[in-house]
Structures are given as C-alpha cells and as structure tokens.
Specification:
The protein is an all-alpha fold. It is built from one helix and no strands.
C-alpha cells in the first residue's frame, strides 16, 4: 500500500511539473505577443512624431525665410 502511495505521489509530481511547464510556455507566448503589439504601436507613434517633426521643421524654415526677407526690407527701406 505504501509503495502504491509513493508511486501515486511520484506521478502526481510529474504531472504538476508538466502543467507548470505548460503554464510557463503560455506566459512566454503571451509576453511575446504583447511585445509584438507594443512594437507595432511604438513604430506607428514614431512615424507620426517624425511626420509632425518634418512639418514643424518646414514651418520653421518658412518663418526663417520670412524674417530674413523682412530684415532685408527694413534695411533697404530708405524712408526712415
């Protein structure tokens, strides 16, 4: 009887080990999926930010051109 009880405990321990292994695999797969989703999200956010940066740089260049043009107009104005 004792021998059968020991075997049962041994087999139950093996089953629990396998269940734990399965749970760890599921967690790893879930983390990989979340990482992939985050990667796509951050890539999209980066592209949006880069497009906004390009727009703002173009705006700054236009402002710089406008100010240099105004400075030249002020310098060339002889009515003052």
């Amino acid at each position: 009887m004792l021998e059968l009880y020991k075997k049962r405990l041994f087999y139950e321990a093996r089953i629990y080990e396998q269940e734990l292994y399965i749970v760890r695999m599921i967690i790893m797969l879930h983390e990989k999926r979340e990482t992939h989703i985050d990667k796509i999200k951050f890539r999209n956010e980066r592209e949006e930010m880069l497009s906004k940066l390009e727009e703002k740089q173009a705006y700054l260049l236009n402002c710089e051109d406008y100010t240099t043009e105004q400075e030249q107009n002020i310098r060339s104005d002889t009515s003052i």
